[in-house]
Amino acid sequence: MPRFAANLSLMYTEQPFLERFAAAAADGFTAVEYLFPYAYAPEVLADTLAQAGLQQVLFNAPPGGDTPEAMVAAWEEGMRGTLCLPGQEQVFQAGVLQALRYAQALRCPRIHLMSGRMPEGAPRKLLEDTALCNLRWAAQAAADAGVEVLIEPINGRDMPGYFLQTQAQAHHLVQLVAAPNLKVQMDLYHCQIVEGDVAMKLRQYLPTGRVGHIQIAGVPERHEPDVGELNYDYLFGVLDALGYAGWVGCEYRPRAGTSQGLGWLRRLPQELSKK
Ligand SMILES: O=C(O)C(=O)CO
């Protein structure tokens, strides 16, 4: 069975952020991911992880902005990364360097670079060239720090105009850059909304070795993975059959209480998550 990480941006929101770590550990998780660490000093987060006995497996580079306040403002204004944005290269690079500093302090092996929303009227080729240039730079900077960088296709219903929406688009960029530490973050929720055929997409892409992280949620409401149009018991079997050894991030909004909603996990025939 896969190894599951709690996503502390969407789960345990009943509690203040720093208390979510202990709550996840109390429910048996040994790993966490979340969107952004920048509102807290890295030492505070490292201590919180250590006290809860958790490992950090993923977080995002800044969505835009160059201070914690500006990053929050950028997110609230709808910025969803700068990877594909011409003219934002310096903001992109500063954000990656900031993320790598946190990754080292938190011993986190991978970071997600959000690709951004397409500016109206911008030619896709220009955005793709910008993304490629930025990815080459980021993969090298991250390799020097021993960290993987990920890009993720995200559905355009949740993020209208998002640059990367299909698995094929993300894998195309990863193949062009051809850096061993650049991979795709495959969120099965987004995959089902945009293109469907999820089991076959797993069978197509996992054997390439280009998928570095998986995330899950029920479709269409992004609740627990035991509700909605995807059959996750079946998909977890597909992951096992394909020998997927990475983490599966639980990036969903609990319907009515995070711990109360973990029945789907408790019913799985294995320890809750493995180191
Ligand atoms: O919205 C998502 O799926 C993300 O992973 C954002 O980082």
UniProtKB/TrEMBL annotation:
Pfam family name, one: AP_endonuc_2
Gene Ontology annotations of biological process type: glyoxylate metabolic process
GO molecular-function term, one example from the UniProt record: hydroxypyruvate isomerase activity
Organism domain of life: Bacteria
Active site (catalytic residues): E152, E251
Domain Xylose isomerase-like TIM barrel: 21-267
Keywords per UniProt: Isomerase, Pyruvate
PANTHER family on file: HYDROXYPYRUVATE ISOMERASE, ISOMERASE
Family: Belongs to the hyi family.
Listed name of the protein: Hydroxypyruvate isomerase
Organism: Comamonas kerstersii
